[in-house]
Amino acid sequence: MNVKSDIKIIKGSITSPNGFKATGKHTGLKKYKKDLAIIFSEVPANTAAVFTTNIVKAACVLWNQKIVKMQPGVQAIVVNSGNANACTGDEGITNNETMAEITAKSLGLKKEQVLVASTGVIGVSLPMDTIKTGIEMLCPELGNSDEDGKNAAESIMTTDTFSKEIAVEFEIQGKTVKIAGMAKGSGMIHPNMATMLAFLTTDINITTELLDKALKETVTDSYNMISVDGDTSTNDMVTILANGKAKNQLISEENEDYKVFREALNTVNTHLAQQIIKDGEGATKFLEAQIHGATTKDEARKLAKSIISSSLVKAAFFGEDANWGRIIAAMGYSGAYFDQTKVGISFSNNTGSIVVMQNGMPIKFDEDEALKILKEKDIKIIVNLQDGGAEATAWGCDLSYEYVKINGEYRT
């Protein structure tokens, strides 16, 4: 984004921005692991969100779409894991609203000030007695420590193997501003909205319109540029609350302050997106596909996403096979234009770099050297098109036997 700013990643959690609290713990929705989280703003916050493009939407998505459109001054988000509350009919709609009502009553809010998120198995009704007891138990325990934030981040996990958190700070108008985020995601991850859950808090003072614009712009180049398995879930969302507690002058136009905020938000979202890929179900490789020299940014995005979304490409990297033919084939069906006679492809990481295709033709390369690169966990796929000046990057992982095992036994 080419903005001059000093954005620092700090030790912190979703509670790092001024005026935010959180908590999370095991309440009985899952057998052993933490399963319920609450995020709370001390004052009403401007809200923006992006939701799944799946036609089948969970009750929480439908509720949140309505609330975000109303802009009632959201102050809380309640999240359960282990149960998606999707495809549960009118009962699911009622149960979702009840979650908002219980949270609102416990915190002295209106139900319209509460967003709800659920993640887990589709088609199972929520155990509302457990939910009610859990919410009433959690609300008095809200705190602003990093430990409180970590507990919340751990409570939204399903097949994740680690919690995903980040906090950053920067200056606007001489005021210190913070953005923090937590996310969950490991499977059902694919470009076309966020295909996971991400919750962001910030104490910046900004209009809802510009908050929404910044979120959507940064989602395009972060969560929408990742893929684990090509599946888009029914519950996906990214939400951000901005409570203005940093006390900077209101950002109401796309000036330098807005650009700094957008860059910081992009830092947060890109970090969380990459963490999701690094925790991809059964993943053994972290793949970064870089497209250089495309005719337009949109064409570059299509090409990068097509590479990291290809099951055959993923399988080749799992097998540590330098099968560049699968890469150019994935580019060919991406829907983007490129001149195949100019294409160059190379693999790179800390071990070294090797060119496997140049000017649209294969070149002889040392298979042993290629294997050294492909044996590493982090691998860059670098594609040079020589068609223009546009670039894009997407992130993905390999496709392993363990992925099939995890998802073959998901309900059991």
Structural overview:
The chain has eleven helices and 16 strands. The model has no long low-confidence stretch (mean pLDDT 93). By secondary structure, the chain is an alpha+beta fold. It has helices at residues 59-70, 89-107, 128-138, 146-155, 208-220, 256-278, 297-309, 311-318, 324-332, 367-374, 401-408, and strands at residues 8-10, 20-25, 36-51, 74-83, 114-121, 164-172, 175-184, 197-202, 226-227, 237-242, 286-294, 344-349, 352-358, 361-362, 378-384, 390-397. Strand 12 (344-349) and strand 13 form a beta hairpin. It starts with 7 loop residues before the first strand and ends with a helix. Strands 1, 2, 3, 4, 5, 6, 7, 8 and 10 form a nine-stranded mixed sheet that branches. It has two domains: 8-278, L-amino peptidase D-ALA esterase/amidase (4-Layer Sandwich); 286-408, ArgJ beta chain, C-terminal domain (Ubiquitin-like (UB roll), Roll).
Q: In terms of topology, how is this protein built?
A:
Elements: E1 8-10, E2 20-25, E3 36-51, H1 59-70, E4 74-83, H2 89-107, E5 114-121, H3 128-138, H4 146-155, E6 164-172, E7 175-184, E8 197-202, H5 208-220, E9 226-227, E10 237-242, H6 256-278, E11 286-294, H7 297-309, H8 311-318, H9 324-332, E12 344-349, E13 352-358, E14 361-362, H10 367-374, E15 378-384, E16 390-397, H11 401-408
Parallel strand pairs: 4-5, 8-10, 9-16, 11-15
Antiparallel strand pairs: 1-6, 2-3, 3-4, 3-10, 6-7, 7-8, 11-16, 12-13, 12-15, 13-14
Whole-Å distance between the termini? 45 Å
- Poorly predicted ranges: none
Task: Give the CATH class of the largest domain.
Answer: Alpha Beta
Major beta sheet, specifics?
9 strands, mixed
Order of helices and strands: EEEHEHEHHEEEHEEHEHHHEEEHEEH
Give the overall pLDDT as a whole number.
93
Q: The CATH topology of the largest domain, please?
A: L-amino peptidase D-ALA esterase/amidase
User: What is the annotated CATH architecture of the largest domain?
Assistant: 4-Layer Sandwich
Query: Whole-number radius of gyration?
Result: 22 Å
Number of strands: 16
Choose one word for the global shape.
Answer: globular
